[in-house]
Amino acid sequence: TLARRLKEFDSPKPKRFLRPKPANRLKRDIPAGRLPWNESRPGALEIDLVEHNGGDSSGLFACTLSVTDMVTGYSRRQAILGKSQKAVFAALESILSQWPTAVHTLHSDNGSEFLNHHLLRFCKQKGIAFMRSRPYRKNDNPHVEQKNRQFVREIVGYARYDTQEAVAWLNAVYALLDPYANLFLPTRKVVEKSYEGKRIRKRFDQARTPFQRLIESGALKPEMEHMLKAQFETLNPLDLHDELEKIVA
Predict the structure, then answer these.
(1) Read out DSSP for the chain?
(2) Do residues 30 and 107 touch, judged by C-beta distance below 8 A?
(3) Hey, how many other C-beta atoms are within 10 angstroms of the C-beta on 17?
(4) What pLDDT sits at residue 4?
(5) CB burial class (10 A; 0-12, 13-18, 19+) of residue 77?
(6) Which of 10, 31, 52, 243 is deepest in the core (most CB within 10 A)?
(7) Which domains does the chain have, with CATH numbers?
């Protein structure tokens, strides 16, 4: 009875207003969701980080930053030592500065290496929409995840790389792999989905390389179109493949 009566009087203690934690504020400012599967405008990029820790996440080890355009399939990779926000942001900024089209959307997972004020501020300054995956929904980033398997794990494997020399070797691999994949390896893309009960039936278009899709889109920056066409005319896919075989052997 006494406690009930005391509630009627104002407490002499000052009221405390809890402020949201920085991580919660970031998640509030970065919407969660997935990009539409039928996006048609190049420049919608999915980004992810692949760890090369050999199954042991202790200590410092190399990571590969992977960036994929979900519309054209064009992709780039860059290895770094560690996964600090500063290192990841510097690598991403380097890749985006050489991207062949204008970028209008970035989509990442919920890792702290991406959800930070550096990247959020960068996207706002550049007029880029920044999105993140929904919690525990790994398939919200399907295009870059597929590239990670095909062009990272199947090429350099699951071993641990934790030295600057190993990072230099990874980047030497990607220097050969990226033009080979983008200029000469055709892929198919889903153009229609239909539902039959619980099953999803997909229809794919004719296989084309990311380079061909970029040309057809008309979204290439003039200087990048000239550079990619020059690469396509001068590079030999068989020579690139042989060099890749030698460097990863």
Answers:
(1) -HHHHHTTSPPSSPP--PPPPHHHHHHHHS-B----TT--SS-EEEEEEEEEBTT--SS--EEEEEEEETTT--EEEEEEES--HHHHHHHHHHHHHT-SB---EEEE-S-TTTSSHHHHHHHHHHT-EEEEPPTT-GGGSHHHHHHHIIIIIHHHTT-B--SHHHHHHHHHHHHHHHHHHHHH--B--EEEEEEETTEEEEEE---B-HHHHHHHHT-B-HHHHHHHHHHHHH--HHHHHHHHHHHH-
(2) no
(3) 5
(4) 80
(5) buried
(6) 52
(7) 23-248 (3.30.420.10)
**Mean pLDDT, the chain, as a whole number?**
92
Residues (pLDDT < 70) of the chain are 11-23
pLDDT at 23: 59
Kindly state the tokens that stand for 231.
């690469």
User: For residue 19, what pLDDT is reported?
Assistant: 60
CA distance 87 to 78: 11
pLDDT of residue 27: 82
Q: Which residue has the tokens 């794990």?
A: 153
